Amino acid sequence: MQIYWTKIKQIIEETPEVKTFLLDCPVDYTWKEGSHLHLALKGFNTGEKPNRSLVRHMSISTLPNEEAVGITTRIKEQSSEFKTILKNMGIGEEVALFKTHTHVPLKREDKTIYLLSAGVGLATFRTLVLEYFERTDGVQNIHSLNIDSSGDYLFTDIFTSTAEKNFTAQFVNNRPAYYEQVKDLATDKNGLYYVVGSDEFLIQTITVLREQNIQPEQIMLDKHAHQLLDFLPIAEK
User: Fold this and answer.
1) pTM summary value
2) Measuring CA to CA, which of 10, 144, 219, 223 is 20 to 30 A from 229?
3) Where are the domains of the chain?
4) CB neighbours of 68 closer than 8 A, spacing ≥ 6?
């Protein structure tokens, strides 16, 4: 396993609770849209065993052409040890990156793509939307639906509806409105439904999709293959 040590080059306050950390791109480090990584803080590998409290699985919210590895995360006032340390880090401090992979690349199958997310789960979809804007072939259109009870919606410079590029961005701030919209979107029985959020959010969203006869192969999750069976059959149990 290769570990890339790199430095924080910029910190962006997206909302009062959400920050994006832009990291220098390590030499020979590559990724594609929909990727995630393991982000580790100094000291995570100094003992006999890795200190897992200093490591987090994170989505990458930028594309390589932005010349930075972006990590967007919510940091509340009362946070974990990892988030507390990260919150107090500054430009020039080092972090480690490893185990970069993607389970949710942009599929170009001439279908409509629905991006269903909660809160900062939108960070995963930012890269898919940017990739789509760069090249729209093979995708009929994209509809993004994000729920964020804080009301501080993310990336509104990108997630803005544009008829020219067949892109719709929709935000709601409560669960009932979200699930009603999912039901409406699921009238498209040929679409591809990408879902990103907490495990509870995945289960509830998948349940709604399956009740609308959306098939498991139409549902894309940011999960390893061995984890998928924990989620996709949920409505059939």
Assistant:
1) 0.92
2) 144
3) 4-102, 111-236
4) 9, 10, 22, 23, 24, 25, 62
